[in-house]
Known about the structure:
Order of helices and strands: HEHHEHEHEHEHE
Strand content: 15-25%
Largest sheet: 3 strands, parallel
Strand order of the largest sheet: 1-2-3
Oligomer: single chain
Number of helices: 7
Shape: globular
Number of strands: 6
Amino acid sequence: MMSCRRTYLEVDLTILEQNARLMRLAMPPDVAMCAVVKANAYGHGAPEAAAAFLKGGAEWLAVALPEEGEELRASGITAPILVLAPTNEEGYALCARKRLTASIHDLNGLAAAEKAGEMDVHLVADTGLSRDGFREEAQWREAIARLERSSSLRLTGAFTHFADADGVSDE
């Protein structure tokens, strides 16, 4: 079927850089900024957008999949890259090879990551979105204990995806 639309997208990388710079200026200097460039930077071109965000002051990048992080490494990006989504043994091995920080969402993922090699990892907490991440405190504590004993995995952070980031609390 033929489309009659004349839609196009114009990306101004200097504006992306400027936006990152403005955000960086508004943040305390000891807080790291991470630019999320998953899904080809939401259609903006991941390597190009990532370079602009880094130039503007981002210290970290985040992608959904290990393959997206591999693409950024192939483009010459050396900054830390966090893989947000859960992955499998092959994905964890790619994280280890490409120096990507893997996300650990459950104990099965932790076991797979332990087999993959040396890498930094972040733990993911499910705080109500119910998509992925540790839900039970006992499993969270077990993961931390296993990471403390691990010779190959280094716990370097944790994150969550809020279920209602815009909600107003009465507290």
